[in-house]
Design a protein that fits this description.
Length: about 350
């Protein structure tokens, strides 16, 4: 599964921002020409011309680079300001106020529920003040105009809010299904990949721990897989409680990988020891049974430029060493860590 697919809302909004800018750039250019050379409405024409230039700039920016979080907000604010000023400057019969009804949909698509709600609320409040202070609403009867605008705007606003809230909820549920191990509720391999490649921006002083439960097959053989599954759930709970920072992932069977960012040799080794000692001294109660387990742990420091596969391989090598030397211990290559420090310096 592609990592980018996990952030589908972000990808959708990037594409929307790009093509909305392109479409609005063309529309604003047409209106600029229309207002400057046909209507002689210079103030509005100049504003629309500036907006068209901004739209084409943002479109070109979005084609080549990842957009910044403030860009869709700025675009929405610019469009809202243009519609409000157009409604204020133009006579009502020009129909420019009709663009008001399109904006809630745009706000929710580009900004999500929270900011979409607040911008939609701000827009309706300001537009109401602008229309109430117009000298004339001709050729529309005032009461009819206010009622139709109010009901139309509220209907579009409610539909946009419900749609975006439902989309966000289902997107979160799908993401959870894709990222979490259904048994232990820890991250899975895909979540680990996403964490390493996307979420973990600063990998300096990152330590990777791979741990494997010693002789776990005996638990499954003696008590059955249902009991084994319950043991894994308890193990995952212990790992989350012991790990005061970073993330834990189940990478398969009885094997887990832990990432400890912003750490050092002593701290990461102590966390590994706390996990080892904690599991060794904890009797896991499953029904009437008490099951005691030990764990072998391989610990490695992230080396600058390593891929996730290389980083995990380094910790796996230490895990293999721990198993070869009696199990129930923590193996860490201090020479590798020293080499890493020399490389950084």
């Amino acid at each position: 599964m592609d990592i980018a697919a996990l952030d589908s809302a972000q990808v959708l909004r990037e594409n929307l921002l790009k093509w909305i800018c392109f479409c609005f750039g063309i529309l604003a250019s047409v209106f600029t020409y229309f207002n400057l050379f046909i209507n002689d409405f210079y103030s509005l024409g100049i504003l629309e011309g500036v907006f068209a230039i901004y739209c084409f700039y943002t479109f070109n920016y979005a084609r080549t680079r990842k957009f910044q979080t403030w860009q869709p907000l700025l675009l929405c604010l610019c469009i809202m300001l243009l519609v409000i000023l157009g409604t204020y400057l133009a006579v009502v019969k020009s129909g420019l106020f009709v663009w008001t009804f399109t904006l809630p949909v745009l706000f929710y698509l580009l900004l999500g529920c929270k900011r979409g709600f607040y911008l939609s609320l701000l827009l309706v409040c300001v537009q109401t003040v602008v229309l109430m202070n117009k000298a004339s609403l001709a050729p529309f009867p005032e009461l009819n105009l206010y009622l139709n605008m109010s009901f139309s705007y509220l209907s579009i606003w409610v539909i946009a809010h419900i749609f975006e809230a439902s989309r966000a909820q289902f997107s979160e549920r799908l993401e959870n299904l894709a990222l979490f191990d259904p048994l232990t509720n820890t991250g899975n391999r895909l979540a680990m990949n996403h964490y390493f490649e996307v979420e973990l921006v600063d990998k300096i002083n990152l330590f990777i721990m791979v741990l494997d439960l010693d002789y776990f097959k005996k638990v499954n053989d003696e008590f059955g897989h249902d009991v084994g599954d319950q043991v894994l759930v308890e193990i995952a709970t212990i790992l989350r409680e012991t790990l005061n920072k970073g993330r834990a992932f189940r990478t398969g069977g009885e094997e887990f990988a832990l990432f400890i960012p912003d750490s050092n040799q002593q701290e990461s080794y102590q966390i590994a020891e706390n996990i080892r000692v904690g599991l060794q001294s904890t009797a896991i109660n499953v029904g009437e049974r008490e099951i005691s387990l030990t764990v072998s742990i391989g610990l490695a420091a992230y080396r600058d430029g390593d891929s996730l596969k290389q980083a995990i391989k380094a910790a796996d090598e230490q895990l293999y060493y721990a198993k070869e030397h009696g199990r129930n211990n923590v193996s860490f290559d201090s020479q590798q860590y020293s080499a890493k420090l020399e490389q950084v310096s």
